[in-house]
Design a protein that fits this description.
InterPro entries: CheY-like_superfamily (IPR011006), LytR-like (IPR046947), LytTR_DNA-bd_dom (IPR007492), Sig_transdc_resp-reg_receiver (IPR001789). One of its GO terms (molecular function) is phosphorelay response regulator activity. This is Stage 0 sporulation protein A homolog. It is built from 6 helices and 15 strands. It is of the alpha/beta class and about 240 residues long. It has 2 domains: about 1-130, 3-Layer(aba) Sandwich (Rossmann fold), CATH 3.40.50; about 130-235, LytTr DNA-binding domain (OB fold (Dihydrolipoamide Acetyltransferase, E2P)). Helix 1 (about 10-30) crosses helix 4.
Length: about 240
């Protein structure tokens, strides 16, 4: 299910965006859920409480907290969330460049520009969703999307995948798992641990702090490489 947030202090603007979003996803038969906010503080509270959204439509000029500040918080909290500015203030496009805003849509052109943006966006999201790891045993196949993996750790001859929904086990070495993942999103931080940089919120000395609140130790032999690669990832994605 695609989770969507709309933040605008004008109810008529929210209604217009909701109408276009609902028409698009209903016609494509794609499951979706829309949460709308006239008060930007309420939206900020929800994302700080780990309410996740795949797509956020933000107005820029709003009372309390403007769209630029909201986008900064979204990038720090959910680096895989797509942010679109629906605005009458296109002069802010340069300021928002460093925030990696997916698209700017003038309010006067919502009916023309928004469906095109959604078409391109869904293509990109669906491609991202295809990135997955398959756990194979003699009795089952289990698909785990890369974006859902927090970290992986070694437990004797098994590798344990820790995700938002729990843990999954595969009888395979951690080095073989890392090879099969074959993605720059994942980093070895210790002989027995792999983390998903998508969920790294902070590095504190020799600890990596993940989105789910877990702290993992980085070995002395990996610390410099881990810091370098996470900084590179943040520069590109945050």
């Amino acid at each position: 299910m695609i989770k969507i947030a709309i933040v605008d202090d004008v109810k008529a603007n929210i209604d217009c965006i909701e109408r276009e979003v609902e028409n698009f996803f209903s016609n494509k038969s794609i499951p979706f859920r829309v949460s709308s906010y006239e008060n930007s503080r309420n939206f900020l509270y929800d994302i700080q409480e780990n309410q996740y959204f795949d797509i956020c439509f933000l107005d820029i000029k709003m009372p309390n907290i403007d769209g630029i500040e909201l986008a900064k918080t979204i990038n720090k909290t959910f680096s895989d969330c797509y942010v679109l500015f629906i605005t009458s203030h296109m002069e802010y496009a340069i300021e928002g460049y460093e925030l990696h805003i997916y698209r700017y849509i003038p309010k006067t052109l919502i009916d023309k520009k928004l469906p095109i943006a959604l078409r391109d966006l869904i293509t990109e999201i669906m491609h991202r969703e295809k990135e997955s790891y398959i756990i194979k045993t003699h009795s089952r196949f289990e698909k785990i999307f890369y974006k859902d993996i927090y970290y992986i750790f070694k437990d004797r001859k098994n590798s344990i995948f820790v995700t938002a929904s729990g843990e999954s086990r595969e009888r395979k070495s951690i080095s073989d798992v890392y090879r099969d993942l074959n993605s720059d999103e994942f980093l070895i931080i210790d002989r027995g641990f792999i983390v998903n940089t998508l969920h790294v919120m902070k590095i504190n000395n020799n600890l990596v702090i993940l989105r789910n609140g877990i702290s993992l130790s980085i070995s002395r032999s990996h610390i410099n490489d881990v810091k370098k690669k996470i900084n590179q990832f943040w520069r590109v994605n945050v």
